[in-house]
Amino acid sequence: MNKYKDKAGLFSDFNFKLVVINSLIELEEFTRFEDDLQKLEDKFVDNYEWYEDIPPIPELMQYFSELVLEESDLNSITELVFDGGNEIYTSYLKPDWDGDDDIFDVKSIEGYQKLVNLKTVYAIGIVDEELLAPMINDGISVE
């Protein structure tokens, strides 16, 4: 069970918050926490013990759990990508993760309603498509 939570209380599933944060990371114009990520990457990711049976980098998991997403951040998101190959996993949290386990699987999308400009969701992995039914009912395209 994932011991990390969204300490800001926006989303009930921390793994869903990670998908949301990944969307922000992917936006070229979004730079609000770019400096923090660079410092964390320099300190923890660059020294990562590749191919060891270790959990995701705790310092980065903690950073993302405490990260407060502002309304303007949430409003900038127009698409979400549920995929084990997302940058947040492969560049920050567990660079050698192969997606063979369920550590980042999303179990709840509660709070997605805060993403008022969300138009499209790509369900490639880490989420059961049935879980996305409320989004479809709200007119969000799920591919």
Topology:
Layout: H1 14-26, H2 34-45, H3 58-66, H4 71-75, E1 79-82, H5 87-93, E2 120-123, H6 133-137, E3 141-142
Parallel strand pairs: 1-2, 2-3
Poorly predicted runs of 5 or more residues: none
Overall 3D shape: globular
Average pLDDT value? Answer: 91
Helix content: 25-40%
Distance between the termini: 28 Å
Main pleated-sheet profile: 3 strands, parallel
Q: Report the total helices.
A: 6
Strand order, main sheet: write it out.
Answer: 1-2-3
- Calculate Rg over CA atoms: 15 Å
Summary tags:
three-stranded parallel beta sheet; mainly alpha; 143 residues
Quick recap:
This protein is mainly α and 143 residues long. The protein is built from six helices and three strands, in the order ααααβαβαβ.
Descriptive notes:
The chain is mainly alpha-helical and 143 residues long. Helix content is 36%, strand content 7%. It contains six helices and three strands. The chain has helices at residues 14-26, 34-45, 58-66, 71-75, 87-93, 133-137, and strands at 79-82, 120-123, 141-142. Strands 1-2-3 form a three-stranded parallel β-sheet. Strand 2, helix 6 and strand 3 (141-142) form a beta-alpha-beta unit. It is globular and about 45 Å long. The two termini are 28 Å apart. The mean pLDDT is 91.
